[in-house]
Amino acid sequence: MLKLLDIMPHYAPDSDYVLAIITDTEGSTYRKSGAMMLMDDKNNYWGLLSGGCLEGDILQNAQDCFKSRQDKMLRYDMRGDEDLIWGLGLGCDGAVEILLKYLPAQENHLGFFEILAFVEKGKDFILRLLPDHNLEFIESPRQISQVELENKLIQSPKKPTHLASSAGLLIPLVAPLNLLICGASPDVEPVTSLANQLGWKTTVIDHRKEFARCQLFPAANNVLHIKRSEWKSFELVQFDAAIIMSHQFERDQDYLARIINSQINYIGLLGPRKRRNKLLSEIGAEFSQLEGRVFGPIGLDIGADTPETIALAIIAEIQAVKSNKKVGFCYQDETR
Question: What is the rounded CA–CA span in Å between residue 49 and residue 33?
């Protein structure tokens, strides 16, 4: 979903588009139901529905949609020898059905780009693909666990979900993760770079003006000089995760004291467990009461020992927590 947002700087309101949606799969496939890909009439595309093997054929079929101004259904069955005949080299052992949904400019692209703009700004929605292939959009605020569908309350889906035949396919359109990094030291740059590749939004703050410079963090969305006096009023409500890595104990303590009382559900602390416990003790908290929300030493235990590999461990850990995955974290390593 997040890769679709890459289209926004290139969006042309007067051009038609085609939205490809995987509607169903059988067996082993690279992507599952709900995966999407956007295409324009110049064969540019955003998002992937396979490892790159189907995209060329999908683009060719999308041209039929542009010419006919109609939707089109595709089916690829990779379970037999047809793959050898097609020459697609699919490397899977399943079948996939794909809807090519025509989005005409004259009909405001069926509202799809308006919703993408809201998602880019931080709002979550659900795309409902009806059995007749019409699209419907349902706002899905993160703080509310249920949404109304056909006069009934249902649990907001965390992943694409097929409901009863009349309800169709529900596809969450989740806003990019918004990451706050407290501290603008050199080892922050690879963190912002990896986050950017995932489509996350990153804000780097530091009380040192000479550190908080945009040119040092080209992949960050915001780099802000936040004085100590300004930190108390700095808005936190938009952030989903925070990393505290200023390398200054007193500043990290100030950052942690505020963030611990926010809604942010991932708080990563750089440094060994002894430093983590001291930071928490200074603000009257205990790690045993915050485990699962506070992570320190930060990052998955992948043997990271350079700024780049540490960044990888941090980003992977945030992704795991975001996806509600239970994995072994570095702080479980008694040697750290």
Answer: 10
Q: How far is CA 324 from the centre of its chain?
A: 14
pTM over 0.70: yes
Pick from 90, 23, 31, 10: nearest CA to 57:
90
pLDDT over threshold 50, residue 146: yes
Distance, in Å, from the CA atom of 31 to the CA atom of 16, rounded to the nearest integer, reads 25
**Residues in a beta bridge with 101:** 19
Q: What is the rounded CA–CA span in Å between residue 175 and residue 109?
A: 20
Q: 250-269, pLDDT tens digit by residue?
A: 999 999 999 999 999 999 99
CA 264 to chain centre: 16
pLDDT tier at 331 (50, 70, 90 boundaries)? low
User: Where in 150-208 does DSSP place strands (E)?
Assistant: 152-155, 161-162, 169-173, 178-182, 201-206
Give the ranges where 121-239 is alpha helix by DSSP (H).
189-197, 228-231
Cβ count near 155 (within 10 Å) = 9
216 token code pair? 């040092």
Two tokens at 237? 């409500």
d(CA 4, CA 175): 11
pLDDT at 2 over 70: no
Question: Distance between CA 159 and CA 154 in Å, rounded?
Answer: 14
Mean of pLDDT values over 2-13: 89
Instruction: Say how many C-beta atoms besides its own lie within 10 A of residue 247's C-beta.
Output: 12
pLDDT at position 165: 62
Q: What is the mean pLDDT of residues 50-71?
A: 92
Q: What pLDDT shows up at residue 86?
A: 45
Residue 329: pLDDT band with limits 50, 70, 90: low
Indicate where the chain has its CATH 3.40.50.720 domain(s): 178-332
Report how far apart, in Å, the C-alpha atoms of 109 and of each of 16, 38, 103, 302 are: 7, 12, 4, 44
Domain 178-332, CATH class in plain words:
alpha beta
The DSSP call for residue 329 is B
